[in-house]
Amino acid sequence: MIITFFLLKNQLYGQKLFFKHLYKIGFVLIFCVKILKYLFLI
């Protein structure tokens, strides 16, 4: 019981880190798209 709880807690923490990483990647992608749009407008 304690082991399964620990694994579940670990999994939730891993998911939090994964979503943080995904958010950073998304932010960078949006930034790149904005730069590309700006370059094409010139």
UniProtKB/TrEMBL annotation:
The keyword Transmembrane helix applies. It comes from the Bacteria. The chain crosses the membrane at residues 21-40. Keywords: Membrane, Transmembrane, Transmembrane helix. This is Uncharacterized protein.
